[in-house]
Amino acid sequence: MNRKGIIIVVSGFSGAGKGTLMKELIKRYDSYALSVSATTRSPRPGEVDGREYFFVSNEEFEKLISENGLIEHAGYVDHYYGTPRKFVEDKLSQGIDVILEIEIQGALQIKEQYPDAVLLFVMPPSAAELKQRLVGRGTETEEVINQRLSRAKEESVGIEKYDYIVINDDLDECVEKVNQIIDAAHHSPSRNLDFIETIRKQLNEL
Asked: What angle do CA 122, 188, 156 make, to 5 degrees?
């Protein structure tokens, strides 16, 4: 039975720890690839072009949009973010699950194009803990932290549209939980229609 890759969309409030969670998941399991998004924002300290993001200009980003080279894109705190189509489709055809770390607007665009995608929303154990993590990063001004908290209020309205929520309290537990959810998704009838059809044919031939 050929295993086809699934798109896993991971969203969450800024500061919920989704980036750390995804990196740990990729490190522990070799059946996942983390999609690298294109963005017009500047690199943060330690970020490398092509690893964390493809850092592009507004002009380059708009060219990608016009050529249908992105499967989703959105604006977030004054910058563009988007998912390059070719990378995702190449990995899926190799049977690799592709993890996309994107926000709600983009996640819903993906679900429209790929109804089989699994949508996960990473949540902090509490709002106070979320603020603490944002402050603890030490990379953003108070104004940006407040923008992110305000954005979290807006995003909290769309969580019901996701397939699963994962509370990121203990990182180890959270990584295992996400892996179990994805593994279970591979066994749903809708993702195994070819196999079901093969069994039906075999039964008819008995």
From this structure: 20
At the topology level, CATH places domain 7-35+96-205 in Rossmann fold (3.40.50)
List beta partners, residue 54: 38
Q: Which H or E run contains 121?
A: strand 118-123
Could you read off the pLDDT of 114-149 as tens digits, one per residue? Answer: 999 999 999 988 888 888 888 877 777 888 888 888
Q: Provide the residue ranges of all domains of the chain, joining segments of one domain with +.
A: 7-35+96-205
Please tell me the total number of residues recorded for the chain in this structure: 206
CB 131 within 8 A of CB 147: no
Q: Using CA atoms, how far apart are residues 206 and 194, in angstroms rounded to an integer?
A: 19
Tracing tokens 């180890």 back to the chain, one arrives at 172
Give the span between the Cα atoms of 152 and 137, in whole angstroms: 17
Work out the pLDDT band at 102, boundaries 50, 70, 90: confident
Q: Which of 38, 96, 21 is nearest to 72 (CA)?
A: 38
pLDDT(1) > 70: no
Task: Report how far residue 51's alpha carbon sits from residue 36's, in angstroms, rounded to the nearest whole number.
Answer: 7
Three-state SS for 75? Answer: strand
8 A C-beta contact, residue 78 and residue 1: no
How far is Cα 131 from Cα 124, in angstroms, rounded to an integer?
10
Picking from 89, 74, 83, 80, the residue whose alpha carbon sits closest to that of residue 158 is 74
User: What distance in Å separates the CA atoms of residue 83 and residue 87, rounded to the nearest whole number?
Assistant: 9
